[in-house]
Structure formats: structure tokens, C-alpha cells
Amino acid sequence: MKKGKFIVISGPSGVGKGTICKKIISDLKLEYSVSMTTRQKRDGEIDGINYYFTTKEDFEKRIKNDEFIEYAIYNDNYYGTLKKEVIDKINMGKNIICEIEVQGAKQIKKLFPEALLIFIMPPSIEELRNRLINRHTNDLEDVERRIKIAKEENKYKDIYDYIVINDDLEKATNKVKEIIANK
Ligand code: 5GP
Fold first, then answer.
1. Which of the residues 28, 64, 98, 121 could staple to 33 if both were Cys, CB 3.0 to 4.6 A apart?
2. Full domain range(s) for residue 46
3. How far is the centre of ligand 1, averaged over its atoms, from the C-alpha of 1 (Å)?
4. Could you give the C-alpha distances from 174 to 25, 127, 164, 170, in angstroms and in order?
5. What's 89's domain CATH number?
6. Of residues 134, 122, 117, 94, the one with CA closest to residue 180
């Protein structure tokens, strides 16, 4: 059976990758890989849909049990992609998309060289800061921490197959769709 595509989307927090992913998942009938994290659930998030929320102890137990394809520490919390969300599904021919940060993407490229890596960039750091502030889900200290991380993440962009600038949501979404469809 033909294997499914493995699509990895990264980009700084607040760049709009969640919105882009939602749209392309429904338009291209992709399956979303739900990550596991130890960060606090935000208002409106649902366990098992947005993330599997868990404790640090449980996450570390799963690392020892080799349950993750990749994991990383981001802003003092663990985030990881579970094997069960990806491997069997790809082998069954399903197209999987995951939304992860750069250290995880680097690990995936090593393990799955055929994966398609797309990096979404903001038009500028100032614009990213405005979007994070307007999102109201992060306090200002957290916004500045995420900006600092975004500057670091920028250094990894060479590992990606494609870079898409999100200055217009619809155009950026269409560009990502086109890249995936042509893979
Ligand atoms: P947030 O706290 O804003 O939901 O996510 C913070 C960062 O963690 C984002 O860049 C997001 O893409 C990334 N992330 C989410 N899930 C995973 C995962 O399973 N692995 C890795 N490495 N990063 C993840």
C-alpha cells in the first residue's frame, strides 16, 4: 500500500499556523496528529482534540517507554508527537499533518527524510508581537518570551523544504495547500 504523506508545519507562536492548519486539514482531508504537552490548558482547549494534556511525571514516563517520535522543551514545558498518532496511520496511506516547533521538526527530518517540512513566517517581529498581544491568551511576559524564542527559531529555517510568509492569511493558506498537493 502507498504510504501517506507526513507534513510538518512550524513557525513562531502567533504566526497563524493553527488557523492555516485548520483550513488545509478540512480542504485536503488530512489527519491532525494530536500532540502531548505538559503546559496548562487554555480557555476553550479540549483534551484529546487540541492536545493530550498531561503531567511532567507522566510525560517523562512515556519518554522512557519510547512512545514519542520526537519531543522538545518549549517555554519550560514538554511537547511531543506520539508514535501512535503517526506511524500506523501513514502506513495505512493516510496523510498526517503535525504542528510542532523547530527542534522537533529537525528530529523528524532525520527520522523521516521524506517528510515535507513547511515553515510559516510573520512579515516582521513587530507584526508577530502585535498578533500575540491581540490574541489575549498570553500575558505580556509570556509574549516577550515567545518573541525571544521566535528569534531563535528563525535560525532553524534552513532545514525546511518551504518557507511561506503569512502577510495575508488566504494567500498563505493557498500557498501551503499548493505545496502539499504537489508533493
Ligand atoms: P502552544 O503552547 O502555543 O500551543 O505551542 C507552543 C509551541 O509548541 C508551538 O510552536 C507548537 O507548534 C509547538 N508544539 C506543539 N506540539 C508539539 C509537539 O508535539 N512537538 C514539538 N516539538 N513541538 C510542538
1. 98
2. 6-181
3. 31
4. 12, 21, 10, 6
5. 3.40.50.300
6. 117
Q: In this structure, what C-alpha cell is assigned to residue 134?
A: 491581540
Cα–Cα distance, 127 to 92 (Å, whole number): 41
Could you report the per-residue pLDDT of 104-129, keeping only the tens digit for each? Answer: 999 999 999 999 999 999 999 999 99
1 within some domain = no
Mutate to test the pocket of ligand 1, among 74, 135, 156 (most ligand atoms within 8 A of CB): 74
Any domain includes 175: yes
Strand partners, 162: 118
- Cα separation, 126 vs 84, in Å, equals 38
Asked whether residue 114 is assigned to any structural domain, the reply reads yes
Number of domains in the chain: 1
Q: For residue 24, give the 3-state DSSP assignment.
A: helix
Query: Is residue 80 a contact partner of residue 35, using CB atoms and an 8 Å limit?
Result: yes
Nearest CA to ligand 1 atom 3: 13
The model scores a pTM over 0.70: yes
